[in-house]
Amino acid sequence: MAKQKKIEPLVGEDLLTKVKELENLSKDEKAKRCGYYTVTKNGIERVNMMKFLNALIDAEGIQLDSSPSANGRGGRSASYRISVQSNGNLLIGSAYTKQMGLQAGDEFIITLGKKHIRLRQVDSEEREESEAMEATA
Asked: Single GO molecular-function term (predicted)?
């Protein structure tokens, strides 16, 4: 059997779409194809089912805990912190975009500071102005 190329674990809508595409496969195979596995030193693939299931719960926007427990982190609740991924991307999860009521296709202007990134949502008036300027150029 040919060795699969390791992919970054899918999250959010990408994860939900892929799982629907793979509906006829076992849950272990779905998790592997969505990137939720590791390869041991001996070359054995191990499925990380817990991370896969947690990512699915997060992608669906299901909140299992009403508030983080005092004795732990409280699962996958919004922490308002993100880390740069190994591919250099910053991913803002669906928990935040749902909380803000954002929809696919919403646009933002990115402003970089010394140690911060500011996002400002582009409103419909600005979008129309921009499109009109591009049409005349």
From this structure: transcription cis-regulatory region binding
